[in-house]
Amino acid sequence: MRLDKFLKVSRLIKRRTVAKDVSEQGRVLLNGKEAKPSATVKVGDVLDVQFGQRTLTVQIERLAESTRKEDVAGMYTVLKEEARKREEDPFGL
After folding, report:
1. Residue 75 carries which DSSP code?
2. 41 near 59, Cβ under 8 Å?
3. Average model confidence (pLDDT) for the chain?
4. Whole-angstrom Cα distance, residue 48 to residue 51?
5. Which domains does the chain show, CATH number per domain?
6. What phi and psi, each to the nearest 5 degrees, are found at residue 89?
7. What span, in angstroms and rounded, lies between the C-alpha atoms of 54 and 90?
8. Position 88 pLDDT exceeds 70
């Protein structure tokens, strides 16, 4: 399954076009490497997705072409969630 489709179907990102844009910006790592939207994901892969000031690390547990909201929970396991601290502004702005 394509990376951008997985991000949308798993509801990590709401829209496939947004998932595509995020991947193209280099904010998604697949097994530690930058991934294009067309990258193929499989069960067991680890994704790092950067959302603004936080990074979410998940492991893919199940693939499905479409899912209901209730079934999304089994598609991935959250391994780590980190909030990055804002860099201090030396000028106090």
Report:
1. G
2. no
3. 88
4. 10
5. 3-83 (3.10.290.10)
6. -85, 120
7. 22
8. no
